[in-house]
Amino acid sequence: MSTLAICPGSFDPVTYGHMDIIERAAKIFDHVIVAVFNNRSKDPLFTVEERIALLEEVTRDFDNITIDSSSGLLMEYAEEKGANVIVRGLRAVSDFEYEMQITSMNRKLNEDIETFFVMTNNQYSFLSSSIVKEVAKYRGTVADLVPKTVEEALMKKYQR
Hints:
With 160 residues, this protein is an alpha/beta fold. It has a single domain (4-157), classed as 3-Layer(aba) Sandwich (Rossmann fold). The chain has six helices and five strands; from the N terminus they run βαβαβαβαβαα. It has helices spanning 16-28, 48-58, 74-81, 93-109, 129-137, 148-157; strands at residues 4-9, 31-37, 65-70, 85-90, 114-119. Strands 3-2-1-4-5 form a five-stranded parallel β-sheet, with helices on both faces.
């Protein structure tokens, strides 16, 4: 049986922490859909289309990764795609409580789709898209936090 996993997130922008989780998921599961979800509680810097383009660029060497987007419920999207698994990254204990709530609700919506938590590499445990945007906004270096393509896109957004 083929395993289709979905790695959801806002990816605004994609960081090396995200890439760590995506790459590891691609090694474990037959196919991974990296799905850009528009979190309405956040004010995104990049459009969904820009985030998709950045993700396509940084995952182009993986033949088992597809980039997509959705604006609906994750579990409805997973059902539509025929996914068996949701992959979620955890940076620290503080992420666990939030993720546990989301996973519990997702399980209530569809108990046939499992959620796998992957701890990010320790070197990225502090990293978030919000922090990256804040550093880039004030002209700090983000070269060791995001892929080169993303760094360039951030510089362009912040007119450098």
